[in-house]
């Protein structure tokens, strides 16, 4: 395997070696490169002050995405293009169209957050810019500002979207694609620095072999969780295996009546396919985090870390998803709900990794909904996350699957509640009995996000809300957002 990091910056391939593999991109830029436009605000992927843009090839086309530099490890730049705020202006000092729009809209005050906003808008300019205010709100949800109230920044975003402006990155796109294509042909990465080792295999077969040799290694996908182990907990990670270079783990396809999502598929890439099948699931992905986090975090990572407040497992479990695990011993398939054994404990053998998850396609007449309760509407961890999947025969419940996150040590089905509903008429009496049964399913804890009493009441009321929406679908129970979508 290769022992040098290679990435593109300012139109040229940069080569790095003998460097800490858990150094963040933010610290590398600020302390090694003196590129201080990228700021540290939170060091946990919340505030967006550290936003940079990464370019990579997707099916032969160049894609730019905003990410948080504060939790991205430096070697994850390998094979990609890096763009920072210093790169935007022209050689003669002329401001980039996004920068100029911010100036003209008076979109900055203290200026600390401004580079992050600029980079988010730069990425949007190079993707699918829209003038819709709610879309812009989503784009900028991961960039926090204490000064401006966002109004002038949104004005700048609208100006950029309306202008259809082109920049020097459009002009040099062919050269960038050629460089990225050359880097794609490079072998996988293996770095050694002091007592730390970093691997970035390019195939699942390579991953299987490396993980068999290092079964205690830390598997790294989007770094939205592992990154905080370093920046907040100051852990020393002896061996890291990065999954982001393995194409097989980044595929989505429909097969044998189900949608199979590779463990390396990001929230951003999973969003549209999931929303097409299950609109509520798509809305859950929108609210799961900021644009920067959706561009980095993965469905497989959200499952593998086993958090009781991970947002995708309740929805996947309610849908009856199957989990695909792999190791040197072969492939193992289990119901996703069986993967979570206890807090911090999953059904994962040494040398085994999450390879993919398959969720069934919607059945005719089935009703699925998922809801997220959090202190902030955008970019916040759930206090309670609920998912329901109902099948009726006439007005009698043929089957229902109910799963909650935040109510137990793991994402957990409400089996007593399900038993109180299945075979009964789908009416208010059945719901009242089911709500009472829920206290047998869960004994939630009290923490900084919610009290035990609040969690139980919210969980019970979400079942009531699901019932109301199924019997009176025209009633207004939700906020309405971008494109007329109903927000849970």
TrEMBL record:
CDD domains for the chain: fer2
E.C. numbers: 1.17.1.4
Pfam family, one: Fer2_2
Gene3D superfamilies, alphabetized: 3.10.20.30, 3.30.465.10, [2Fe-2S]-binding domain (1.10.150.120), CO dehydrogenase flavoprotein, C-terminal domain (3.30.390.50), Uridine Diphospho-n-acetylenolpyruvylglucosamine Reductase, domain 2 (3.30.43.10)
Keyword entries, A-Z: FAD, Flavoprotein, Iron, Metal-binding, Oxidoreductase
Coiled-coil region: none
PANTHER family reported in the protein's UniProt record: XANTHINE DEHYDROGENASE
Protein name: Xanthine dehydrogenase small subunit
Organism: Sneathiella sedimenti
Name of encoding gene: xdhA
């Amino acid at each position: 395997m290769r022992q040098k990091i290679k990435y593109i910056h300012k139109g040229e391939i940069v080569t790095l070696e003998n460097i800490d593999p858990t150094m963040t991109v933010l610290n590398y830029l600020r302390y090694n490169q003196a590129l201080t436009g990228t700021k540290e605000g939170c060091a946990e992927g919340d505030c967006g002050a550290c936003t940079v843009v990464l370019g990579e090839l997707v099916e032969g086309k160049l894609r730019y995405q905003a990410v948080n530099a504060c939790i991205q490890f430096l070697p994850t730049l390998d094979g990609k293009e890096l763009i920072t705020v210093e790169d935007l202006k022209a050689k003669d000092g002329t401001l980039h169209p996004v920068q100029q729009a911010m100036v003209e809209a008076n979109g900055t005050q203290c200026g600390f957050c401004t580079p992050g906003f600029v980079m988010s808008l730069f990425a949007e300019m190079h993707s699918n810019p829209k003038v819709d205010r709610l879309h812009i709100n989503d784009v900028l949800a991961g960039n926090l500002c204490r000064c401006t109230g966002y109004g002038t920044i949104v004005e700048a975003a609208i100006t950029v979207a309306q202008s259809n402006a082109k920049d020097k990155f459009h002009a040099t796109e062919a050269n960038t694609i050629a460089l990225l294509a050359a880097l794609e042909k490079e072998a996988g990465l293996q770095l050694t620095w002091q007592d730390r080792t970093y691997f970035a295999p390019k195939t699942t077969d390579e991953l299987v072999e490396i993980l068999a040799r290092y079964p205690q290694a830390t598997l790294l996908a989007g770094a939205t969780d592992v990154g905080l182990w370093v920046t907040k907990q100051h852990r020393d990670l002896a061996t890291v295996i990065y999954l982001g270079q393995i194409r097989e783990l980044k595929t989505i396809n429909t097969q044998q009546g189900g949608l199979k999502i590779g463990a390396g598929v990001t929230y951003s890439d999973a969003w549209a396919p999931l929303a097409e099948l299950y609109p509520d699931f798509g809305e859950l992905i929108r609210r799961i985090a900021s644009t920067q986090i959706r561009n980095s975090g993965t469905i497989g990572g959200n499952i593998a870390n086993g958090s009781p407040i991970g947002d995708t497992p309740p929805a996947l479990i309610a849908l009856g998803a199957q989990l695909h695990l792999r190791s040197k011993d072969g492939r193992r398939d289990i119901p996703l709900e069986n993967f979570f054994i206890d807090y911090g404990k999953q059904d994962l053998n040494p040398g085994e990794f999450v390879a993919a998850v398959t969720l069934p396609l919607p059945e005719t007449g089935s009703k699925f909904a998922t809801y997220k309760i959090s202190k902030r509407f955008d970019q916040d961890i759930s206090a309670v996350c609920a998912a329901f999947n109902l099948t009726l025969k006439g007005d009698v419940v043929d089957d229902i699957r109910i799963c909650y996150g935040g109510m137990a040590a793991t994402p957990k089905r409400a089996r007593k509640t399900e038993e109180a509903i299945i075979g009964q008429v789908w009416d208010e009496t059945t719901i009242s009995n089911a709500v009472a049964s829920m206290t047998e399913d869960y004994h939630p804890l009290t923490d900084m996000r919610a009290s035990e009493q609040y969690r139980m009441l919210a969980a019970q009321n979400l079942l009531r809300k699901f019932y109301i929406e199924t019997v009176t679908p025209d009633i207004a129970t939700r906020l309405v957002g971008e494109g007329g979508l109903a927000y849970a």
